[in-house]
Amino acid sequence: MPQNNYSYTPNPAFYSPLTKEFIKEMKLKGNGAIGHLVEENKNNSGNLLFILENLGYLPTSFDSDWLFTLLNYNNEQVRLWVVKNIGKLQNENYIDILYQVAATDTSTAVKREAISSIGRMRSQKAKSVLFAMLTNEDPKIICQAIRGLLVFKGDEAVDLQLKGLVNHENEMVRTVIYKEYFAKQKEKTSILSHAETYPYLKDVVVNGDVRDVLKYVPDESIHLTFTSPPYYNARDYSIYPSYEAYLAFLEEVFLETYRVTKEGRFLIVNTSPVIVPRISRAHSSKRYPIPFDVHHFLVQMGWEFIDDIIWCKPEYSVKNRVGGFAQHRKPLAYKPNPVTEYLMVYRKQTEKLIDWNIHQYDSKIVEDSKVKDGYETTNVWQICPKSDKVHSAIFPVDLCKRVVEYYSFKGDLVFDPFGGSGTLGRTAKSLGRKFFLTEQEPKYVEYMKSFKTETSIFKEDNTKFLTLEQFKQTVK
Ligand SMILES: C[S@@+](CC[C@H](N)C(=O)[O-])C[C@H]1O[C@@H](n2cnc3c(N)ncnc32)[C@H](O)[C@@H]1O
């Protein structure tokens, strides 16, 4: 360790309030000034933390002896920052000390930081320590060690050790190793570039069962799907023989949706638990947790879970459930009135980062698609529901607007397999996107056509309303 030659002369500056500038000044002064400042503050963990957090870049000549005296400090945050600063010294003589910290500190955050600091040294000497950490019980420590070792990718011993982790029990470890060593460049299944799609899918509504229609839609042609599936048997537009049959139907639709979705793009499913009323007073009503049951198979088929957004309405819109309880107030019979629905956000599995998706677009499109100020920053979206004289469950335009703006680029193809009254299509079009909708009920397709005269969106006659047969003819 470097020698500390600092000899103390009382300095009124040490008693000035701590500021970033003051710390910088002390650091530049060298000759142990920071060490003394730390000594002055050693019983004040708040001040110590402030000093440690604001040390910034540390030159190799930095007099760092004092750092090591704080490795046993009782405040975990202080120890964490001590370790970070030791790492910044980039001195491979400290690898053993950091290794000791990783092996003995009681805080997992400090242990992880120690491994991360060792990794950042990019030193050959660190390899054996990082190898030892690959059997750690904490998957995050293993991932930190992998990160440090990947600097040496191509080194036979490193590759051998890392490849051996491809069947590791932790999914994060498996994913990193798979991506680094085993993921093959996916064969291109579409002749189009990522930003493009087929002209015969643009601004099209097909009247038919989505399962039949999707058979004619090519792989990787959709940029975004936002949909609200039928609510099991809670509304009158679709009837299923059982909840299992309903879930199997959705599974089929979302598996096909997966196929037609472009790499790394999004599916957003709006559902909520539904209640099927009791048949008589002698029976109870049944509540079906649709979002939770659907989630399970979506993830199984490869949709990566990204977010749960809560759509919060100002008041409940179904039959009052808390009425009886309001009278008797007896526990167990409490049933709140739901004012929320879920928007579950998923991404089609890919080894690529979101940045890759963004880079597939021309910079002008990216610029033009930027989300304006005033966007929602939380996952609770307060939006009034929309009632409609023809369709009993339509999307509010604001809900579609957010989804389209946040999850697609201008010119993208936005899909709703359960088109209903076509709200998503009209909104997508108004935002410079193209749409593809399927809807099995002729009366709702007729309703969509009626919007031609009411709004400017479907007014332009370039929207094509097709039967399944007609659609098949257009598919080249
Ligand atoms: C909850 S609504 C969607 C409403 C829509 N989001 C809107 O804004 O108007 C579900 C729709 O899916 C349709 N549907 C049900 N089963 C279908 C199927 N197999 N293929 C296509 N559409 C279907 C229903 O007729 C209904 O209009």
Question: Which terms summarize this structure?
Answer:
binds S-adenosylmethionine, nine-stranded mixed β-sheet, 13% strand, 476 residues, 11 strands, alpha/beta, 42% helix, Leucine-rich Repeat Variant, elongated, 21 helices, Rossmann fold, two-stranded antiparallel sheet, single chain
Folded structure, characterized:
- The protein is 42% helix and 13% strand.
- The chain is an alpha/beta fold and 476 residues long.
- The protein folds into 2 domains: 12-182, Leucine-rich Repeat Variant; 199-474, Rossmann fold (3-Layer(aba) Sandwich), CATH 3.40.50.
- The strands form 2 sheets. Strands 8-6-7-3-2-9-10-1-11 form a 9-stranded mixed β-sheet. Strands 4-5 form a two-stranded antiparallel sheet.
- The longest helix has 18 residues, at 243-260.
- Mean pLDDT is 89; it is low at 1-14.
- It binds S-adenosylmethionine.
- Residues 209-210, 228, 230, 237-238, 391, 393-395, 418, 420-421, 423, 438-441, 444 line the site of S-adenosylmethionine.
Q: What is this entry, summarized?
A:
The chain has 21 helices and 11 strands. It has helices at residues 20-29, 33-40, 45-53, 65-69, 76-88, 95-104, 108-120, 127-133, 139-150, 156-163, 171-182, 210-214, 243-260, 290-300, 323-328, 354-359, 363-368, 397-407, 423-430, 442-454, 468-474, and strands at 204-207, 222-227, 261-271, 274-276, 286-288, 303-312, 340-348, 380-382, 413-416, 434-439, 464-467. The termini are far apart.
